[in-house]
Amino acid sequence: MTVILTLLLLLPMPAGLHADASERLARPDTVDLAALRAAAVSRDPRAIQPELLARASRLRLEALRTERLPQLALTGQATYQSDVPSVPISLPNGTTPSAPRDQARAQIEADWAVYDGGRLARQADLERARLAEQTAGVAVTLYALREATMESFFGAVLYQAQAETLALTAEDLEARLALVRKQVEEGAALAADADAIEAELIRVRQQVEEAEADRRAALAVLSDLSGLPLGPDDVLALPDLDAEVALAVARTVTVSAGTLEMEGPPEFERFARTQQRAEVEARLAEAATRPTVSVFGQVGVGRPSPFDFLSDEVKEYGLVGLRFRWAPLDWGQARREAAAARLQADVARSDADAFALQLLRQTETARADLDRLRRALPQDERAVSLREEVVRVARRRLDEGVLLAPDYVDRLTDLAEARLVAVRHRIERAQAQARLLSTLGRYPDLPMDTLFRLD
User: Which of 451, 410, 441, 432 has the alpha carbon at shortest distance from 197?
Assistant: First the structure.
């Protein structure tokens, strides 16, 4: 089944976006998401697997290359036989010519496959295909770490913004509480007014403490994922991804029996590598029925010589020859093995189709979230502006003693909620952008992907 999907894939990122990790963390109080994603991958114990897999593959390829060289073996044997060949004649001395009953032989055997039907070449291709598939699998596993780091990052950013927004409300309440207490002392206000403001201040301070505690917990998770020492003084910099998303263009990704788009999420490359490996296995199975030609030889000494078995003397001997082998009839074994391998490729192709459909759903969801949040941001700004004006008027009336403290607290609470909604929408918009780019495998990460991709 062929599935053709139109997804948002980004144009190549400008070179300036791929700065070094040390440059991205140049400001000690600012933590960058791209640097955290790269650090999470680099510190994972599985990050070394591509190198280990490549070294193991090189050793196996070297072992295959040695099979192309002449194979030498030193053999020897000594026997005593109950019966031996003899010539049924009697010599003048009354003896009958026969081979000795005790025999010994030592020889060097050589065998050189000058033509193997392409088997070794295809075995080498299969080894390289397996390495590519395994390496792509590691890339998929480590890419999931990037996404987990991203989700933890935005959670910490949200707690940080909530704490900062609520702290502003607490500052306002502190100022108002000091003023009302002074009015109480002067008899211009009731003690209940001060109590109402103080109660609200306690509630807001508790919310600030809760947000800061949640932020510390989120930073601990990020620190564990990335290996970077993150403390309360570190500021998580919200990524500016407007330019990257603006550069997105519609590009057709074809997932069919013949092609796979190698850009985008690493899963696409893994599916493609699996198909390539299965196809190489099919070609290797087909080579089983091809003829082989080899040169062989023997050099040794024996008593008797195998070419003069009636002699009782130790003699040198040798032979050289050409061997041809062809088994065209294997009762369909090679054909069935090749067909089974190609069915595995079809399985990988169907997995790619299903993943592409899933990717489309995720992309459409992210785009819908971006559209919703894009429309919400100006509305949030307008709501905050209106609430600020209401609070400004209420503050003046409270100072003049014509507004009760509980009414002022209600208006200040409404402003805090409007600010929290605006902040949450701004963070959710950046998170939706990051999810979209990460889903498509086009997030402007630090250039570490080359460690896990093969030419």
Answer: 410
* Burial 212-227, CB ≥16 within 10 A → b, else e: bebbeebbebbbebbe
User: What SS3 class is residue 338?
Assistant: helix
Task: Judge whether 448 and 42 are in contact, CB under 8 Å.
Answer: yes
| Residues 6 or more apart in contact with residue 390 via CB below 8 angstroms | 411, 414, 415
Q: How far is CA 216 from CA 37, 198, 204, 421, 424, in A?
A: 19, 27, 18, 22, 18
Residue 302 and residue 106 in contact, taking contact as beta carbons nearer than 8 Å: yes
DSSP per residue, 167-212: HHHHHHHHHHHHHHHHHHHHTSS-HHHHHHHHHHHHHHHHHHHHHH
Model-wide pTM > 0.90:
no
Query: pLDDT tens digit string along 337-358?
Result: 999 999 999 999 999 888 888 8
- Note the pLDDT tens digit of each residue in 179-190: 888 888 877 778
Q: Of the candidates 70, 59, 2, 453, which has an alpha carbon nearest to the alpha carbon of residue 263?
A: 453
Which residues are 310's β-sheet partners?
A: none
Type and span of the H or E element at 447: none
Whether the CB-CB separation of 299 and 107 falls below 8 Å is answered with yes
CA–CA separation, 375 vs 54, rounded Å?
50
Q: What CA–CA distance (Å, rounded) separates 134 from 142?
A: 13
